[in-house]
Amino acid sequence: MSVIATVDLSAWRAGGSAADEVAAQIDAGLQRAGFVLVRGHGVDPALARDVRAAARQFFALPAEVKQHYSVPVGGRGWIGPGAEANGFAEGTETPPDLKESFSLGADTATGDAEVDRIWFAPNVWPREVPALQSLVTEYTAQMRSVADDLLALCAHALNLEVNPFAELAARPTWTMNINHYPPVSVVGEPEPGQFRIGPHTDFGTVTILDREPGAGGLQVYSEDGGWEDAPYDPEALTVNIGDLLEYWSGRRWPSGRHRVLPPQPDAPEEDLVSLIYFYEADHDALVTPLAPPVGKVAGLGPVTSATFIKERLDAISVG
């Protein structure tokens, strides 16, 4: 049996005893691995399908065309092969991840030029795939709604009278990466220790993943089970918590450690696209960890969201 629990967000939204049961399930599930599968999320699967199809059109463009949209890790646009090595976030030197990404994020400018440059820069949309902008805009709006519900559920799971993220995520930073994992015929044979995404944890509050199943797919780590293939449910979103929510919980919930395997010998031409929504908090949110007995670690000091996350983003940039 997988360490990853499945919860029904529609039952949480319904309230009453059913919501209490979901809250207990998510607390137990997050304590095991920092991951849950979420059904009843209300996101139309056709929307994710259409976003993925438009993204594939972009990734199929010649490299010299995509280069016009090239940005470093943390930027808005195309992050090409070789730019990122997520294993560095754990202090492990690994070859670059075998992927390319199209990245975008919150663009609700604050008026502070330096803050906006880092956290609320304008998104860049490829004119070669005009449908991508409207599709992704609708998709991220729905992901924002799911993320807010998940944070409210997390607060309820810990029996808090007030959901602190109602204020801490009033104008949050967030990023969406559309990750393309090409086949061996494109990326070549993996080097020793090379992954599509190296072992790491995410940095923010909750991450919401719409994935395609594959032999070279997602694996999740837990203390009980070690590395195991993440279960796949076509009707569920895969959700994990990031370092900031782990910290806020007083390390009650471990940040979900995971990796994406390289192309496998029995499926070398597998070609996958994942939609990943990384939710955070207001850039200037002061996140104060929960003390025991709710949290597991005493004496953790407050942190500012932007500082906390920026340190981790800088660590995974190659070069």
Automatic annotation (TrEMBL):
Pathway(s) where this gene product acts: Antibiotic biosynthesis
Pfam family for this entry, one: DIOX_N
One example of a Gene Ontology biological process annotation: antibiotic biosynthetic process
Keyword set, alphabetical order: Antibiotic biosynthesis, Iron, Metal-binding, Oxidoreductase
PROSITE patterns: FE2OG_OXY
Keyword Oxidoreductase (UniProt): yes
Top-rank taxon, per record: Bacteria
Keyword Iron: yes
Entry-linked InterPro entries: DIOX_N, IPNS-like_FE2OG_OXY, IPNS-like_sf, Iron_ascorbate_oxido_reductase, Oxoglu/Fe-dep_dioxygenase_dom
Gene3D superfamilies the UniProt entry points to: B-lactam Antibiotic, Isopenicillin N Synthase, Chain
Record-level Gene Ontology MF annotations: metal ion binding; oxidoreductase activity
TM stretches of this protein: none
Record domain Fe2OG dioxygenase: where: 171-281
UniProt family annotation: Belongs to the iron/ascorbate-dependent oxidoreductase family.
PANTHER family attached to this UniProt entry: 2-OXOGLUTARATE (2OG) AND FE(II)-DEPENDENT OXYGENASE SUPERFAMILY PROTEIN-RELATED
Protein name, entry field: 2OG-Fe(II) oxygenase
Organism: Mycolicibacterium vaccae ATCC 25954
